[in-house]
Amino acid sequence: MKPTAYKLLFEHNNKNYIINTYRNSVIEVSKETYELLKNNQCINPDCTEYQKLCKSGILVSDNLNEFQRIVNNEQAMIFGNHDAIAMVIAPTMKCNYKCSYCFENYLCERNTMIPQVIEDVKRYVISMLKKTRAKSLYMEWFGGEPTLAMDIINDLSNYFIEYCDANGIKYDSYIVTNSYMITDDMIQDFIKDRISSVKVTLDGTKEMHLDHKNAPKDAYEKTIENIQKLSKYMHVDVSLNILEENYDMVYDFIDEIAEYFSGNDNIDIFFAEIYYSDSTKEQLSNSKYFEYFGKVNKYIKSKGMRPNYKNRYCTRGCNLINKNNAYIDTDGNLYRCERHIGDPKHIIGNCKAGLFHNEVDNRYTTYSSERPEKCKTCPIFPMCRSGCAEDILEHRTPRIKCEQYIQDTINHYKNTLTPTNSF
Known about the structure:
Blueprint: E1 2-3, E2 7-12, E3 15-20, E4 25-29, H1 31-38, H2 50-55, E5 59-60, H3 66-79, E6 84-89, H4 115-132, E7 136-141, H5 150-166, E8 170-177, H6 184-192, E9 195-202, H7 206-213, H8 219-230, E10 235-242, H9 250-261, E11 267-273, H10 286-302, E12 306-307, E13 326-328, E14 333-335, E15 349-350, E16 354-355, H11 359-365, H12 381-384, H13 389-393, H14 402-416
Parallel strand pairs: 6-7, 6-13, 7-8, 8-9, 9-10, 10-11, 11-12
Antiparallel strand pairs: 1-5, 2-3, 3-4, 13-14, 14-15, 15-16
């Protein structure tokens, strides 16, 4: 048996710990074992901790190709016949805002689904449920601003819910909205449509929010009010969009929203890093993001709100790469990435004809071969998977800073997990 390549070691409170990044678990070990593993030395089978190390995956078979195991698991995810299907549908690309960082600014036409496309979408989704014999259907409503096409969401939701209920399939959905258009009647529609969770973005203080979104003067107050209303009936993810220009005022902003959200367990607060479609604008650097990520989450908690510890990176693979899942635009075209919606060169099929099995889609099923060589033996690889698949395929400069990600993972275990020897 050999030590796994996918491990991190740290000392804390005079104890020694090993993180298995493939299993996302941690165990405590003796100082002697810690030093041997630190130097990637073999462990004697007579060692009292040998069986524990094997059981926890810290020691693996000499013949195991650990990188290939991960790739094989990804292929199983992509091609496997899973119990669940996930679809992201944009019923309209129209929007009542014009956010400065929107990646959809390149779209020339901001159209809405026509009746024929709606029927095509219904047939396609149901055909996928039949083909895969899925036990659950998860729907995300996207855009544009999806609430501008609430009639389409109601129509599609009713159709999918009726089919799922009649066939013993679990149905759930999520909506991404700026919330400005939401009314009491619309919230009742959300409930009927089984929208159990909502994501709403805020871009900082009132002035900053209005400036970034080019929104009406009452947009900030309406957003706060509608988040409060929604949280009475469903979970709300409040996304704080972090940019270089609002980095310095995050604590003041948290103080401000705490007046409205403190003590509300139906609201989670998390950070979303912004990548401008205009590359000349300044993104927040990795070092600054990690500098306050943990501290700000603690501050959110101290103000009586729930921090959501979502990592800034796409991890464990992208769910939409699964062959049965897709993004669907207003013309019924299919995509693998939300950033591609409306861009003809990234179409992988349509709801009328199905998947094209073209080169565009094939790149996503084989993108493991395009990963940087250094990633294959990096101890954090099972958790980061080299980051976003689309970034890898487009050969963008990696968003991930390996050393910082490693330290962040160790700090996460130190601060939020209780190590255990139980497996």
